[in-house]
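haha ok so turns out i had the wrong file open the whole time. this is the CORRECT one, sorry everyone. sequence first:
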Amino acid sequence: MQHVIVIGGGVVGLTSAWWLVEAGYSVTLLERESEVGTAASYRNGGQLSYRYVSPLADAGVPLKGLQWLMQADGPLRFRPEADLRQWRWLASFLANCTAGANAKTTARLLKLGELSRKKMAELEVVLPLDEFAWRDAGKLVVYRSRSVFDAAVARPDSEESRQVLSPSECVAREPALADAEGVLAGGIFNSGEAVADCYGFCRALEERLAASPRFRGVVHGEARGFVTENGKVSWLDTTAGMLSADSFVLAAGIQSRTLADSAGIYLPLYPLKGYSLTAPIRPTDRAPEISVTDFERKVLYARIGDKLRVAAMVDMVGEDSSINAKRIASLTRQVRATMPRAADYEHIETWAGLRPATPTSAPIVGATEYPNLWLNVGHGPLGFTFACGTASILADLMSGKPAPIPLAGLTL
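then structure:
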């Protein structure tokens, strides 16, 4: 039985381990934290946006980015680094900021999203959805600018079932938006989108893995680098010792780029730092039942169990996962203005995480120049959404099976 070491115990690493175990591999998971799912997967937005896959790179985004940088509560912050990787990523990102590139990536991600939705559904047999607060909530994207809203309505849409709503219809569909009706230009609703607790999903999947005789367990240690010999990876150097296996899967979030460097592989990844607030919902609160995205402000709202999760912002500040108090204060002001009666904002739990993104927003899955080193990286803010899909693709490729969807634009 082939032994695989999966590096990374977040949602991407855990789903990779699950599908490899299901494919007949013996699997060990390496995670540097004391628990799985406590880094970028911990308190992310909780939205499973299978049909709303909007790549960050698009025509007009560079100009918007400059405007956002000038706004006190803008969704973007940028800090130049003396790091060639930042500038190389930015150059590639800017090259992809065209309508044509965006359309191609969107088409690819829609196929990946549909595959992920189906694979998540397959997990229901062994992983009851209530264990991680999964709900088929639907998604409502609201717009504040009439021109931006009109442009969104006019764009070709893959979902015939989408519903274009006026401000009053947005409030009728989601009453939590009542206090924001006066500033809305309209909204677009799509059914079939879900919300769930990503950390809860990670813990539940870890339990199911532990019950498999092919799962060798979790090794808690930090990977330092690969040792390569004769065109293959022979060892993985970690704080838990030197580890060997027949194959290795790199799914370690933003740490993946440094680990890949040790094997001479450049991964076009950059950490987009995001923030979230989690607030308890009281019986008297009017929390949203639908997953809501405030398009211009790039703020996501999701009810997860008895908590309201709000996620937002992109800070391009390198591998700094600290919580910036000013950014949290800014996000809190926006949330209070948009949904003032949705939750108990006096008892907010804050979080920040590094989302490893590619310049195109498309993840990278599959082979490398080494026959026993595989990738499942670069999911950006859609790690929870795409994890089941890319994990199933990875297992198929490693087993010599054809990929279930075209892989153009999704490989190294």
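The chain has a mean pLDDT of 95.
again sry for the mixup
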